[in-house]
Specification:
CATH architecture of the largest domain: 3-Layer(aba) Sandwich
Strand content: 15-25%
CATH class of the largest domain: Alpha Beta
Number of strands: 20
Number of helices: 12
CATH topology of the largest domain: Aminopeptidase
Bound molecules: manganese (II) ion
Largest sheet: 9 strands, mixed
Helix content: 25-40%
Structural class: alpha/beta
Shape: globular
CATH superfamily of the largest domain: Zn peptidases
Length: 469
Amino acid sequence: MNNKTVWNKYTKKQNDELEAFATSYRAFISDCKTERECTDYIVNELEDGGFKELSKVIASKRKLKAGDKVYAVNKNKGVIAFFIGKEPLENGMNILGAHIDSPRLDVKQNPLYEDTGIAYLDTHYYGGIKKYQWVTIPLAIHGVVVKKDLTTTIINLGEEEDDPVFFISDLLIHLSQEQLEKKAAKVIEGEALDIVIGSKPIAQPKTAKAKEDAEEKEAVKKSVLALLKEYYDMDEEDFLSAELEIVPAGKARDCGLDRSMIMGYGHDDKSCAYPSFRAILDTPAVNKTACCILVDKEEIGSVGATGMTSLFFENTVAEILNLTGSLSDITLRRCLANSNMLSSDVSSAFDPSYASSFDKKNVAYLGRGMVLCKFTGARGKSGSNDADAEYLGKLRQIFDQDKVQIQLAELGRVDLGGGGTIAYILAKYGMNVIDCGVAVLNMHAPMEVISKADIYETYRGYLSFLKNM
Ligand code: MN
Ligand code: MN
């Protein structure tokens, strides 16, 4: 069933479009590694595309009508965009929903310490990672520091050619006899994921008295603090109100001699977030209102004010209904229940090197098109949103019409593990929801890999969905 490559079906024009799309996506994930950076970038794109900020529309006392475009930002970590359709909102919306957070290491609130002449930042990992994959690779620091006077300093260090990078050390192979006996989950422990941030002591005053003194205590940490003061005007206690994320340093790259793939950090779920907001930007007109949800905290269970389980989405839809002059409890409920959603999230790509972990008949393949997952979950579909056959039938019909190639897949072999997405949260409203996105190799590794053809086909699929549903 999932046995056709998508590469051979494209015209010359489509091939050029595919390359252009892949190039702009590669630039996006190279620059936008955190949910805040994604939000900034996407807001700029939406503004350029004629979308207006919701609070400004509310303040202007203007009503919304068909053809209007609005967006709302949630605490700088998520965006929801709407393209108002000709049909009443009560009839429901066509929703593309993806997440813009990715697995990483978060700096703790009291992170800085020195041990034996090396200064470290202590971290707590975020999302599901194989910890041993994060040692000995160049790392960058992205995030914000909010000081007590409420000024915010943005930090992005480790990405430019002449920026310094950071790393987590690993034991040399020569002495690893005992370490290599350990289980892979224990080889590198969570508490050992501390990044090296400096090794040079602060300069001593060259007085006779100072020379007599023993070396200054924590001189390397003091030097790091002096540099933080110099570069960012921050003190040690400013870490208390900072959000600093440690991510792999460097840009995403074309991959393979044929340049058919992209290797980079954060394909989960930026490879679905990008085609989602590009689709709502590029769609010329819609009958049903189009909605694009880009949300934070999916990797840790969609919790908190910026996760999908927060009421931000529902509240924003209520605001939109209010601005179209049709808000009531019942119209809000109808709008949500009558909606269709593609929960835009990545799926696993079949990996021939680990063939036995997959069911070859029911797995996605690199380069074979957009992936639909009827259900996710684990141990007997537990925790899954299980999309209706009727909804799947309708989607097959529209994708067929627009010659969008799809593949139906599960994450892996039954009872081997599993995963979840934001699908089940939206399904609670009674709307049609299915997981739909791009197949990824090495999911959740510092460097993940996707096929350029798959992300392009997914973009085509999202456009078809907004146009036809
Ligand atoms: Mn995901
Ligand atoms: Mn994930």
